[in-house]
Amino acid sequence: MKFVKSLIAISMAACALSTAFAQEAVIRKNLTERLPNLPKIEEISKTPMNGLFEIRLNDSDIFYTDAEGNFLIQGNLIDTKSKRNLTEERTEKLNAVAFDSLPLKDAFMVVRGNGKRKMAVFEDPNCGYCKRFERDLQKVSDVTVYMFLYPILSPDSTDKSKNIWCAKDKGKAWQDLMVRDLPVPKASCETTAIDRNLDFGRKHKITGTPTLFFANGSRVPGAVNAQQIEKFLTDAK
Read out DSSP for 104-162? Predict the structure, then answer.
């Protein structure tokens, strides 16, 4: 009897899998034919909402469609019972970057206290939000911050980034500019690390500054305050 039940369960699972593959094939075929300029569909999966499917494009761009690909929806899927933004959660998961995969050799360190906790930040020296963030970060101790220069706002951002990277004390030059509004002395050296930061940012869709990464791989965009930073550092343990 147990053997028969097992066969039935296997058969039902195989049937469900076959149906899922067929459904995915229909969605992929219809969307591709009807929207030839649509980027390559990388993944199709069911959502918690009956009849709604998630379409993933360009690594982490999320769209939604019905079972036949007759409609394409862009926007946030909200679970009203749990009050969760499912689209945001999914995007954050897709955009997570393993801390060990960050090119730390292309960053400089700012260590506070015992430096046991770790975080990385991509910042532009002309970013006003970054300056606000840096001033709030002064209140956070026992942390090592890996600072990635990420000049995306203007040519002057690139010039300042190069001068900071070539400074004898990168951390001091950075803090002088961002916290104390002191000019960055001119300096010259090999600065391909900044180019690599820009390449890394494009690959991982870092479109604004500051963008933070924590030890558990989580990504946080924007100038969060000291209390929020503490929470993210605690959660990342």
Answer: GGGSEEEEETT--EEEEEEE-TT-HHHHHHHHHHTT--SEEEEEEE---S-HHHHHHHH
What is the residue range of 230's domain? 99-235
Output the pLDDT for position 20: 67
Query: Do 8 and 107 fall within a single domain?
Result: no
Q: Which of 183, 178, 181, 184 is nearest to 136 (CA)?
A: 178
pLDDT in tens, 160-197: 999 999 999 999 999 999 999 999 999 999 999 999 99
Residue 38 tokens, joined? 């649509």
**What backbone phi and psi angles, to 5 degrees, belong to 5?**
-60, -40
Q: Return the CATH number at 149.
A: 3.40.30.10
Q: Identify whether residues 115 and 13 lie together within a single domain.
A: no
The count of structural domains within the chain is 2
* pLDDT for res 17: 47
pLDDT tens-place string over residues 30-66 = 999 999 999 999 999 999 999 999 999 988 899 999 9
Sign of the dihedral through C-alpha 164, 166, 167, 168? positive
